[in-house]
Amino acid sequence: MFKHxxxxxxxxxxxxxxxxxxxxxxxxxxAQLAFDEQANGxxxxxxxxRVRGSWLLAQPVEGAQWFHPRPSAVDYATVASGASxxxxxxxxxxxxxxxxxxxxxGTRGKPVPLELVTTSGSGLDPHLSLEAALFQxxxxxxxxxxxxxxxxxxxxVHAQRPWIGPTVVNVLALNLALAENPAPDFAERN
Length: 190
Description:
Blueprint lengths: L1 H33 L1 H4 L3 E3 L5 E4 L36 H14 L22 E3 H15 L3 H10 L1 E2 L7 E3 H10 L10
Antiparallel strand pairs: 1-2, 3-5, 4-5
Helix pairs in contact: 4-5
């Protein structure tokens, strides 16, 4: 019996060392060398070195003077990320969407973009469509007392066009640009 157990234990220890220790350490070392910023979470730091957020994760935003990300079913918690899992026929989902639409004060002439009233699959999407970001420009301009054309220009400057999919805007990038220059004048860049 021991002649069968010993090779099995040796294989277990060997594979544990290879796949549980050596492989993760080598992948981590390679990632730190080749992709330092991404391997460390694509963190955004201010001048004092304090972490302000991540380019990869949405975070809650309060106040009419800031761009807001999509709603989150998990309150932007990274550990418990996920969707609400409510079916389209669920009355709770219908009420949440109706309340979110009412909060955004959309009209027939200017309906609220769908992504501002529905949660995403992860609850952590850092990007909005260009349409959803532009929808917020008027509210932010009124809260900051600046022309909405300046915010439209800011949104267009920060627009990212991926290879596949619609044009998107990183909400953190927009808000950091607003924090750095409370009355931005981006009209001359376009």
